[in-house]
Specification:
The protein is α/β, with parallel strands linked by helices. It contains ten helices and 13 strands. Helices cover 31% and strands 29% of the residues. A hairpin with a 4-residue loop joins strand 3 and strand 4.
């Protein structure tokens, strides 16, 4: 029998509850409250400030879509920047790509990396020590606004827009991303559940518009990110969507192994519910 339960605090009036079989770690770090516990269905679960961030059972869906959709869309993603992503799952997927030469990951909280390496080792699978990886402990918004380096793909693997993650949904952050992204580059970011958080769609779409000629979203169903599909913001100079046949050849040639992502799902993920399309249109930009 579980010792207790975890009730997520992301929404007012609606919540998911997970039984806690055993608490593995709990602490208030310099930046946030961190809890790692075991659940019978989802395995080990990481929660920050009362919100589920990742689980052993379904993390592959989120990390594969955040990584492979933009990386297989870009013709030559040699240099990649990850903002956040301290659990290591996104880095694990990015270093699989043979074209990628360097991945810079900027994480604000070293404790998240250390604890996830200890308690969720299958997320990173040694990716933090991969020769392609360069780990920077620092503030993501300061990095994109100050770095002289340029990137082909920028991925924002952030928490919801509260607490330390709030600035990663700001106009200043998007301006910084635009300045360090190559002209033909792609920016993708976690953007919440559009059904329960429609304001994240409209706000992101509006804030991206001054810096990127093309903005849109794609989606994936991640069980522990409740409320319908999870949306990912997409921005760049153009849609950059390859033809299915070319994408299928590239995926096969890459040798990348996945459990969720495939070329057919890649294209289908850009087919958005009408309520998301209407939310974008309502912004008037």
């Amino acid at each position: 029998m579980p010792n207790s339960s975890f009730r997520e605090t992301l929404y007012h009036g609606y919540a998911q509850t997970l039984d806690i079989g055993r608490v593995l770690f709990e602490s208030k770090t310099e930046h946030q409250h961190l809890l790692i516990f075991e659940n019978e269905i989802f395995g080990r679960v990481l929660a920050l400030d009362g919100v589920v961030q990742t689980t052993e059972r379904d993390e592959f869906i989120y990390h594969e879509m955040l990584a492979h959709v933009p990386l297989f869309s870009h013709p030559s993603p040699r240099n990649v920047l990850i903002i956040g992503g301290g659990d290591g799952g996104l880095l694990r997927e990015v270093v699989k790509h043979p074209e990628v030469e360097r991945v810079v990951q900027v994480e604000i909280d070293r404790a998240v990396i250390d604890l996830c390496t200890q308690y969720l080792p299958d997320h990173s699978l040694g990716a933090f020590e991969h020769p392609k990886a360069e780990i920077v402990i620092g503030d993501g918004i300061n990095f994109v606004c100050e770095t002289e380096r340029r990137f082909d793909v920028v991925l924002s693997d952030c928490t919801d827009p509260v607490g330390p993650g709030e600035v990663l949904f700001s106009s200043r952050f998007y301006e910084g991303v635009a300045r360090c992204l190559n002209p033909d580059g792609i920016f993708v970011a976690q953007n919440g559940s559009a059904f329960l958080q429609p304001e994240e769609v409209t706000t992101t779409y509006q804030r991206l518009s001054p810096y990127f000629p093309y903005r849109s979203f794609f989606g994936a169903a991640v069980p522990t990110y409740v409320g319908g599909i999870l949306t990912f913001a997409w921005a760049g100079a153009s849609p950059r969507q390859p033809e299915f046949a070319a994408l299928s050849r590239r995926f096969a040639d890459s040798g990348v192994k996945t459990r969720y992502y495939n070329p057919a799902l890649h294209g289908a993920s850009f087919a958005l519910p009408q309520y998301v399309i209407d939310a974008m249109a309502a912004t008037g930009v």
